[in-house]
Backbone:
C-alpha cells in the first residue's frame, strides 16, 4: 500500500449537529468524501476514523474501512492530525503517502486528489494542500491593506494570484507527518482547485450554500430503477394554474416530457402519477402520456406502500419525484427520492437527487434521460436501424453554405495550431485546404494568460525558438488582429471560409469583431458554461464538438446553446485515434437525441474512419491538416498531409454520389442485362 486516505469524521459538531451525516444532493457528507477518495486512481485504501455508529455505517457502505476513534481523540479540541496518526497506527502497513480528507468539503474532484498525490510521489513536494486561486484584496480591521498597497490599484490581470486554503484535503509523506506531528513540513506545494469546490461547511448557512450548488457542481449519475413515480403539480407543471372566465383551469407542461416517458415505457420501467388534486387536468395529462394516475389522495405514503406491494417492486429500486412537503412521506419510502430545483427546502434536503430543470421546464424529461442512461441499450432491429439513418433535420446556414442532410458534406481543414505561429505557414495550409476542395479552414483562438493553467505557466519547454516557459510558448504561437486580418483577406481570395475555436470569452469577442460566419466549440469547452453563454449570445451558427463528453454533459451544453443554429460533431479526443475508440454509431445517437445536423471531427491516421462517418450520415467532416506529419508541434502527427486531404475530399464526393436517394429502381445501365438475363416463370 503506497497511498492511504484518512477521513476524520466525529459524531459531534458545534456549528451543524451531526454535520458529517448531513445530506448534500441527497448524499451524506461523509459518503461524498469516501466516494471521491475511492474514485481517485492513486489511492489504495480509504479509512474513516469515527466515534459514531451512523457515520461508520455510511462510510462502510460507501467503500471505506472504519477505525474506531478513541474518546480522547474525538473532542472538539482534538486535532485532525491526531486522528490521522491514530489511523496510521492501526493500518498495519505503513504507507508512503497519507491524505487527510475532510468531510466539510462537499465537492472534491478525484482528479485533484490524484494530481496532489502525484506531486508527493514524484518528489516535487513533501506536503500538498488544496487551495483556490484568488485576487481578493484583504484588509485588517484598522483599514490597512494586508496583501496590497492601497495607494496602487493594479488591474486584476497584472496581479499574481494568491491561494486560499479550502480545507478539503492535505497530502503528506507519512514519515514526515510522524516526524513533525503536523500537516505542513518540508517542501509545501499548492493543488489549485475550482472555486466552486471551495465552500467549507462550518455553519447552517454553509450547508444551504453547498446544497444549492450541488445540482450545478455534481456530475449527474444514472438512476438505476425499475419504477418512476411522480407528483403532478410542480413536477409536470410549473406549479401555476391558468383560469379562464368559465373557471376552467389549464396548466403549463413541457412537450419533451412526453418523449422521455415514451422512452421509459419502451425500456420496461413502470410509471405512475400520484396527486392530491381532484382536477381533471391531471387525469387528462396522464392519459396523454399513457401513464396510470392515482389522484385525490389524502395520504400518499400509504397508497404508495400498497402500490409497491401489489406491483412486487423493491422500494430501493424506485424513484419518486416531488416538490412540496406532502411528498416527504413517499420520498422516505423509496431508494431514489428526487426533487425539482425549486422544491421546498425540506424536500431538497431529503432528496438523493436534485434535478437541474424545474417542473414544467423539462424536469420529467431530465429524470427519464437519467433513468434510461442506466439501462442497457436495446439492440436495434435492421428496420429500426434503417429508420434511424433516415432521420433528418433542417440544414444550418454557415455564411452562404448550407450544412445538413441532403447537402454536400461540409469539409473543414483544421489548421488549429499547426501554423506554429508562422503566418506564411498558415497561408500555405489555407492553399492546401482550398486546393483539395475544402469549404472551410479552422484555427484556434486563445488568451494565453486566461487559458494556460497557473501551475503550467512557468514550466520550461524546448521549442524551435529555444527554451522558454509554457506561457511564453503559447503567446509566441498565438495569432493576433494583424495576422487574422491577413488570414481573412487571403481566405476571401482563395474562396474558402475561415473560423476558429475560441477558448475564452475575450476570444469570442475578438472573433466577433473579425466577423467569422460560425463559431466552433472545442471538446475541452463543453462544460465551460461561461464560454457557452457568450457564444449563444452571438446569435451565430455554432459547431459543438463532443469529445471527452457524456450525454448528460452534452445535454447541458445544448440547453445553453439551443438547437436552432447548432451543428454537433461526434468526436473522440484521442490523438491519434485508434479504430476501436471511434464509436461511429454515436452519429446516429446524436441525430436521434438532438434533432440537429451531426458531423464528425476525426483525429485518426488514414481516411477509412472519416469516410465511414459519411456513410453513416455525417454532414460535416473536420480533419487536422499539415504540410508534413513530422513537423514540430503536438497536433501534426494526427494530421492529414496535402495528398491525404485531396484523397479524403475526392472520396467523400464519390460516396455522396454512391449513397443515392434510397429509392429502389432499375437504372439505365441495368436495362440491357435485364432484357438479356431476367427469367420469369409462373
Residues:
Amino acid at each position: 500500500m503506497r497511498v492511504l486516505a484518512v477521513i476524520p469524521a466525529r459524531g459531534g459538531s458545534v456549528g451543524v449537529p451531526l454535520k458529517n451525516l448531513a445530506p448534500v444532493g441527497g448524499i451524506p457528507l461523509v459518503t461524498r468524501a469516501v466516494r471521491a477518495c475511492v474514485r481517485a486512481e492513486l489511492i489504495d485504501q480509504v479509512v474513516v476514523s469515527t466515534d459514531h455508529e451512523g457515520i461508520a455505517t455510511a462510510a462502510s457502505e460507501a467503500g471505506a474501512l472504519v477505525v474506531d476513534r478513541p474518546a480522547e481523540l474525538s473532542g472538539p479540541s482534538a486535532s485532525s492530525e491526531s486522528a490521522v496518526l491514530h489511523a496510521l497506527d492501526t493500518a498495519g502497513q505503513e504507507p508512503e503517502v497519507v491524505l487527510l480528507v475532510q468531510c466539510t468539503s462537499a465537492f472534491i474532484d478525484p482528479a485533484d486528489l490524484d494530481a496532489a498525490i502525484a506531486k508527493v510521489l514524484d518528489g516535487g513536494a513533501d506536503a500538498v494542500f488544496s487551495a483556490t486561486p484568488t485576487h481578493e484584496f484583504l484588509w485588517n480591521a484598522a483599514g490597512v491593506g494586508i496583501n496590497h498597497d492601497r495607494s496602487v490599484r493594479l488591474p486584476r490581470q497584472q496581479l499574481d494570484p494568491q491561494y486560499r486554503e479550502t480545507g478539503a484535503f492535505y497530502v503528506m509523506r507519512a514519515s514526515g507527518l510522524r516526524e513533525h506531528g503536523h500537516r505542513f513540513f518540508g517542501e509545501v506545494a499548492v493543488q489549485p482547485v475550482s472555486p466552486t469546490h471551495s465552500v467549507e461547511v462550518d455553519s447552517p448557512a454553509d450547508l444551504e450554500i453547498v446544497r444549492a450548488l450541488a445540482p450545478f457542481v455534481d456530475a449527474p449519475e444514472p438512476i438505476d430503477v425499475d419504477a418512476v413515480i411522480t407528483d403532478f403539480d410542480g413536477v409536470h407543471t410549473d406549479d401555476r394554474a391558468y383560469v379562464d372566465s368559465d373557471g376552467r383551469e389549464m396548466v403549463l407542461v413541457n412537450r419533451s416530457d412526453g418523449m422521455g416517458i415514451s422512452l421509459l415505457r419502451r425500456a420496461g420501467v413502470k410509471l405512475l402519477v400520484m396527486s392530491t388534486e381532484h382536477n381533471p387536468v391531471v387525469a387528462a395529462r396522464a392519459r396523454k402520456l399513457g401513464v396510470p394516475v392515482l389522484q385525490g389522495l389524502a395520504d400518499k405514503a400509504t397508497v404508495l406502500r400498497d402500490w409497491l406491494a401489489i406491483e412486487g417492486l423493491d422500494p430501493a429500486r424506485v424513484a419518486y419525484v416531488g416538490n412540496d412537503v406532502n411528498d416527504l412521506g413517499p420520498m422516505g419510502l423509496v431508494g431514489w427520492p428526487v426533487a425539482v430545483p425549486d422544491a421546498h427546502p425540506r424536500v431538497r434536503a431529503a432528496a438523493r437527487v436534485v434535478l437541474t430543470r424545474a417542473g414544467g421546464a423539462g424536469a420529467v424529461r431530465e429524470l427519464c434521460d437519467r433513468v434510461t442512461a442506466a439501462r442497457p441499450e436495446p439492440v436495434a432491429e435492421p428496420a429500426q436501424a434503417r429508420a434511424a439513418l433516415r432521420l433528418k433535420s433542417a440544414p444550418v446556414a454557415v455564411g452562404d453554405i448550407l450544412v445538413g442532410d441532403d447537402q454536400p458534406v461540409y469539409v473543414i481543414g483544421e489548421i488549429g495550431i499547426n501554423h506554429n505561429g508562422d503566418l506564411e505557414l498558415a497561408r500555405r495550409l489555407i492553399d492546401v485546404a482550398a486546393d483539395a476542395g475544402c469549404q472551410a479552414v479552422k484555427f484556434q483562438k486563445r488568451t494565453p494568460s486566461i487559458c494556460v493553467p497557473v501551475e503550467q505557466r512557468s514550466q520550461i519547454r524546448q521549442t524551435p525558438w529555444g527554451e522558454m516557459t509554457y506561457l511564453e510558448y503559447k503567446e509566441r504561437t498565438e495569432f493576433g488582429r494583424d495576422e487574422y486580418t491577413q488570414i481573412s483577406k487571403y481566405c476571401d481570395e482563395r474562396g474558402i471560409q475561415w473560423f476558429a475555436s475560441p477558448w475564452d470569452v475575450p476570444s469570442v469577442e475578438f472573433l466577433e469583431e473579425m466577423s467569422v460566419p460560425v463559431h466552433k466549440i472545442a471538446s475541452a469547452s463543453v462544460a465551460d458554461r461561461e464560454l457557452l453563454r457568450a457564444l449563444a449570445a452571438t446569435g451565430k451558427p455554432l459547431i459543438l464538438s463532443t469529445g471527452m463528453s457524456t450525454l448528460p454533459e452534452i445535454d447541458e451544453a445544448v440547453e445553453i446553446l439551443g438547437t436552432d443554429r447548432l451543428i454537433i460533431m461526434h468526436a473522440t479526443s484521442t490523438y491519434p485515434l485508434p479504430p476501436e475508440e471511434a464509436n461511429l454509431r454515436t452519429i446516429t445517437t446524436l441525430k436521434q437525441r438532438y434533432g440537429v445536423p451531426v458531423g464528425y471531427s476525426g483525429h485518426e491516421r488514414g481516411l477509412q474512419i472519416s469516410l465511414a462517418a459519411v456513410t453513416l450520415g455525417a454532414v460535416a467532416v473536420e480533419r487536422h491538416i499539415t504540410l508534413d506529419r513530422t513537423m514540430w508541434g503536438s497536433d501534426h502527427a494526427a494530421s492529414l498531409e496535402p495528398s491525404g486531404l485531396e484523397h479524403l475530399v475526392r472520396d467523400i464526393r464519390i460516396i455522396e454520389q454512391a449513397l443515392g436517394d434510397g429509392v429502389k429502381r432499375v437504372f439505365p445501365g441495368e436495362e440491357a442485362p435485364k432484357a438479356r438475363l431476367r427469367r420469369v416463370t409462373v
The mean pLDDT is 89. The longest strand covers residues 162-173. The radius of gyration is 29 Å.
